[in-house]
Amino acid sequence: MLTIKQLRSDKELAARRLAKKGVDATAAIENIERLDDRRKALQTELDNCLAEQNKAAKQIGALMGQGKRDEAEQAKRLVADLKAKSAALAAESKSVADELQAVIVTLPNFPADIVPEGKTAEDNVVVKIEESYTPLPENALPHWELAKKYDIIDFDLGVKLTGAGFPVYKGKGARLQRALINYFLDCNTAAGYLEVEPPVMVNEASGFGTGQLPDKEGQMYHATADNFYLVPTAEVPVTNIYRDVILEEKDFPVKMTAYTPCFRREAGSYGKDVRGLNRLHQFDKVEIVQLALPEKSYEALDGMVAHVESIVKSLGLPYRILRLCGGDMSFTSALTYDFEVYSEAQKRWLEVSSVSNFESFQANRLKLRYKDADKKTQLAHTLNGSSLALPRIVAALLENNQTPEGIKIPEVLIPYTGFAIIE
Description:
Elements: H1 4-8, H2 11-19, H3 26-65, H4 69-104, E1 125-130, H5 143-150, E2 153-154, H6 155-161, E3 168-169, H7 172-190, E4 194-195, E5 201-202, H8 204-209, E6 222-223, E7 228-230, H9 235-240, E8 246-248, E9 254-263, E10 282-292, H10 297-314, E11 319-323, E12 335-343, E13 348-359, H11 361-366, E14 369-371, E15 377-379, E16 381-389, H12 390-400, E17 407-408, H13 414-417, E18 421-422
Parallel strand pairs: 4-9, 8-14
Antiparallel strand pairs: 1-11, 2-3, 5-7, 6-7, 9-10, 10-16, 11-12, 12-13, 13-16, 14-15, 17-18
Helix pairs in contact: 3-4, 5-12
């Protein structure tokens, strides 16, 4: 979340920056300033009351020792009154602090200066495009038809077992999933990311720490009996490894990678964009996460974008990289680059990765800090990226590599699949 200092140091600038994300925050910022002033005044009054209480309490023993019982009793009554006043002030102070926190957590992160203006995906800026299209056979099939033809993904069986958006992978389809996961993890570990295997359920503190909670869009699957949440991405448990941790400058950068199944309700999804693997409620994804020093985080972001690009390029898929506009960015992001691959059969671009810098927004929620050279405690910066999300990668691989003989497997994956073609 944003800090009070970020919001109060230049209220007009803060409002303009949040307006870039489509948020009118003027009233909220004014309310935050009012509540912060009240909180500070209450704290000052409480501190003075406690000091007076301590002073009076110390006098009681001295007065008793001097035989001044009436004055000692008067001092006791004063202490009792001050205790009651202190308790009331502490309760009001907590109430104001809670109200202040509740307002701040509704505000999204500031977008970086280079984030384009805009409200929807139509306003995103293409920063790079690699067009390497493969001629397809006549009457090329979309991936959901190919999955049925080669019996590698069963969407109907998934509906029977669970519901729509929970496909069953079979035979070479299952093997391809496993191959992609292992390939992506190997690429990431070779680039210096530490592999971790986190839980796929997290507690409320973890969901809050990375900005998924409060769940304003109803995307999280919630196990209410234990108040646990199924992860929407490995970013949540992996980044929370460092919740309430204070690092040293020498510890940076921290680089981690993880595979998890991911769960998203995708409320309101419908139409052609959700056919087949285009939008699922459960899907596999390999994630990369970095913790960086503030002055190095955008250099780290560039490195993460280049790393993801190298993996997409190795699969031989046409792709493009977009810089997201303010209105299309996530609640937590300061700058996001999306990767999309082109589906030859569907004639459309499919998002396969988002790589984002959150600056100190998540770190403030996580209380993830470090000690600088002057031993002062500062907030770190956090970043993450899909490296990669499998469903649309699989969709594009099946569609773009279909031939009359079968679906060819990219050369880099053959050592992982153990086969070169799905026949």
